């Protein structure tokens, strides 16, 4: 059965995101004392007791001029209300009913979507007066609740039961069945003994290409400095004004996930807040937004770094790119606003120069020029993302790796160690993919210089097509076969 879709609405700073996180069972939305933190709709799967829920966090309802950011935020909230099975209107019981609460309650009374009135922040006796005032809004009996402390959730469960029953009846009439969720397989690290045994055997026990499950969503994060067109790109890709956009810098604050299908392939797009230089991030709210972006990078498989065509790979872009590589994610550079670039030749030259000098540790990072606003080159961007993702998932058989290692050490033998004896690289294997990670077993790994490790990594890129993705190579000491005898 499709879960009950619940939209959480209300004026700013009444605790909508706190309730969203409570029902989701984890901190997904940013919670801050400043009003108006949430701007986009955020979806999450949650549960209240044995009742599965699809929860929607929304921006605060505010009256504003037609061209204001608050008006665009309200339009997102109105869409969430129209798509929901039931809406939870929150009020702050400690503050009582405000004129804004009364105004929007009047709007909700004529809405076709059922509404449950929630009197939030009801912990303690200070909220009793506000709770009694809520009866006058004409939205039925209010449910007293404290989202922060988790009190009153049983009352919310009872209020949602009739709406869940109505949803089941509608789905039964429409003949909808339950859908099974596919479980995603994760790469697992092998133990050192297993790796050495596999490497020493030297057999072709692994396929040269690890097939990517076409039913498994590709986690794609869009990152970059503020106002580079990240949200505009996501909206263009999915063909809907799903995310809030505008000329103002820093419109996006939360990392918003959008499920999408590209040419039959499920994609989980994550739009993130813009990342400024660390020294300029002083407000606590912006620090929370940056932390949300960093978490999105860690959870991603491929990261698209959006850049302005007139400011490609500046200092902050390079900082973000290095962070993505250090996290082991596949990286694609997107040069946005290409249609408005002042000097395209100079831009491309600067891009290549900065990649060669500042990103030499990951050679061959792919880049695409595009215009998110006009929808140009978006298919090429997604083709590049899928190609890079396939490389990031690639595996090489142990037999091929050991033959390659023998040729590499034969062409350029390892240097002498500290004790005057030449180092021996005995065998190697691929420990995991995502990113490609290799283990080389040698006599004295601590004596092998970094320059020789880079020689091996560069050789892996050229020989097995790992251009443009992070490659990790670990040196491990071989076990003495006679030590235990």
UniProtKB/TrEMBL annotation:
<comment type="similarity">
    <text>Belongs to the TRAFAC class TrmE-Era-EngA-EngB-Septin-like GTPase superfamily. EngA (Der) GTPase family.</text>
</comment>
<dbReference type="GO" id="GO:0042254">
    <property type="term" value="P:ribosome biogenesis"/>
</dbReference>
<dbReference type="InterPro" id="IPR006073">
    <property type="entry name" value="GTP-bd"/>
</dbReference>
<feature type="binding site">
    <location>
        <begin position="224"/>
        <end position="231"/>
    </location>
    <ligand>
        <name>GTP 2</name>
    </ligand>
</feature>
<dbReference type="InterPro" id="IPR032859">
    <property type="entry name" value="KH_dom-like"/>
</dbReference>
<dbReference type="InterPro" id="IPR031166">
    <property type="entry name" value="G_ENGA"/>
</dbReference>
<feature type="region of interest" description="Disordered">
    <location>
        <begin position="196"/>
        <end position="219"/>
    </location>
</feature>
<keyword id="KW-0677">Repeat</keyword>
<dbReference type="InterPro" id="IPR003593">
    <property type="entry name" value="AAA+_ATPase"/>
</dbReference>
<feature type="binding site">
    <location>
        <begin position="120"/>
        <end position="123"/>
    </location>
    <ligand>
        <name>GTP 1</name>
    </ligand>
</feature>
<feature type="binding site">
    <location>
        <begin position="271"/>
        <end position="275"/>
    </location>
    <ligand>
        <name>GTP 2</name>
    </ligand>
</feature>
<feature type="domain" description="EngA-type G">
    <location>
        <begin position="4"/>
        <end position="168"/>
    </location>
</feature>
<dbReference type="InterPro" id="IPR027417">
    <property type="entry name" value="P-loop_NTPase"/>
</dbReference>
<feature type="binding site">
    <location>
        <begin position="10"/>
        <end position="17"/>
    </location>
    <ligand>
        <name>GTP 1</name>
    </ligand>
</feature>
<keyword id="KW-0547">Nucleotide-binding</keyword>
<dbReference type="Pfam" id="PF01926">
    <property type="entry name" value="MMR_HSR1"/>
</dbReference>
<keyword id="KW-0690">Ribosome biogenesis</keyword>
<dbReference type="GO" id="GO:0005525">
    <property type="term" value="F:GTP binding"/>
</dbReference>
<dbReference type="Pfam" id="PF14714">
    <property type="entry name" value="KH_dom-like"/>
</dbReference>
<feature type="binding site">
    <location>
        <begin position="57"/>
        <end position="61"/>
    </location>
    <ligand>
        <name>GTP 1</name>
    </ligand>
</feature>
<dbReference type="InterPro" id="IPR005225">
    <property type="entry name" value="Small_GTP-bd"/>
</dbReference>
<comment type="function">
    <text>GTPase that plays an essential role in the late steps of ribosome biogenesis.</text>
</comment>
<protein>
    <recommendedName>
        <fullName>GTPase Der</fullName>
    </recommendedName>
</protein>
<dbReference type="InterPro" id="IPR015946">
    <property type="entry name" value="KH_dom-like_a/b"/>
</dbReference>
<keyword id="KW-0342">GTP-binding</keyword>
<feature type="binding site">
    <location>
        <begin position="336"/>
        <end position="339"/>
    </location>
    <ligand>
        <name>GTP 2</name>
    </ligand>
</feature>
<dbReference type="InterPro" id="IPR016484">
    <property type="entry name" value="GTPase_Der"/>
</dbReference>
<feature type="compositionally biased region" description="Acidic residues">
    <location>
        <begin position="203"/>
        <end position="212"/>
    </location>
</feature>
<feature type="domain" description="EngA-type G">
    <location>
        <begin position="218"/>
        <end position="393"/>
    </location>
</feature>
<comment type="subunit">
    <text>Associates with the 50S ribosomal subunit.</text>
</comment>
């Amino acid at each position: 059965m499709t879960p009950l879709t619940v939209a959480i609405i209300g004026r700013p700073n009444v605790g909508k995101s706190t309730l969203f996180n409570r029902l989701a069972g984890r901190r997904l939305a940013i919670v801050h004392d400043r009003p108006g933190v949430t701007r986009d709709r955020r979806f999450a799967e949650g549960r209240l007791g044995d009742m599965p829920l699809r929860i929607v966090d929304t921006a605060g309802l505010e009256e504003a001029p037609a061209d204001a950011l608050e008006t665009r935020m309200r339009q997102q909230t109105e869409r969430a209300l129209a798509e929901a099975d039931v809406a939870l209107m929150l009020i702050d019981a400690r503050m009582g009913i405000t004129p804004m609460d009364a105004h929007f309650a009047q709007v909700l009374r004529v809405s076709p979507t059922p509404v449950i009135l929630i009197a939030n922040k009801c912990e303690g006796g200070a909220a009793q007066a506000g709770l009694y005032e809520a009866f006058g809004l004409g939205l039925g009996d209010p449910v007293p609740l404290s989202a922060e402390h988790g009190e009153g959730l049983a009352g919310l469960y009872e209020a949602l039961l009739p709406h869940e029953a109505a949803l089941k009846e509608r789905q039964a009439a429409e003949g909808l069945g339950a859908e099974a969720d596919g479980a995603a397989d994760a790469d697992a690290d092998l133990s050192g003994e297993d790796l050495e045994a596999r490497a020493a055997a030297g057999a072709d026990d692994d396929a040269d290409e690890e097939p990517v499950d076409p039913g498994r969503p590709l986690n794609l994060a869009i990152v970059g400095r503020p106002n580079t067109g990240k949200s505009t790109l996501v909206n263009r890709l999915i063909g809907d004004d799903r995310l809030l956009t505008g000329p103002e810098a820093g419109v996006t604050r939360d990392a918003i996930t959008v499920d999408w299908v590209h040419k039959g392939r499920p994609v989980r797009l994550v739009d993130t807040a813009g990342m400024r230089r660390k020294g300029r991030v002083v407000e606590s709210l912006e620090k929370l937004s940056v932390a949300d972006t960093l978490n999105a990078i860690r959870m991603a498989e491929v990261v698209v770094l959006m850049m302005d065509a007139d400011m490609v790979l500046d200092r902050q872009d390079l900082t973000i790119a290095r962070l993505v590589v250090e996290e082991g994610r596949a990286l694609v550079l997107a040069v946005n606003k290409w249609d408005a670039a002042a000097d395209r030749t100079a831009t491309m030259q600067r891009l290549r120069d900065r990649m060669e000098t500042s990103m030499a540790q990951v050679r061959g990072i792919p880049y695409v020029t595009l215009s998110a606003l006009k929808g140009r080159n978006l298919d090429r961007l997604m083709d590049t993302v899928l190609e890079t993702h396939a490389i990031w998932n690639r595996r090489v058989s142990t037999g091929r790796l050991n033959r390659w290692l023998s040729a590499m050490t034969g062409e350029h033998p390892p240097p002498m160690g500290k004790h005057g004896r030449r180092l021996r690289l005995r065998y190697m294997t691929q420990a995991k993919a995502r990113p490609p990670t290799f283990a080389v077993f040698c006599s004295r790994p601590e004596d092998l210089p970094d320059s020789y490790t880079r020689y091996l990594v560069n050789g892996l890129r050229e020989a097995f097509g790992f251009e443009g993705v992070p490659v990790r190579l670990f040196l491990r000491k071989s076990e003495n076969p006679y030590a235990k005898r």
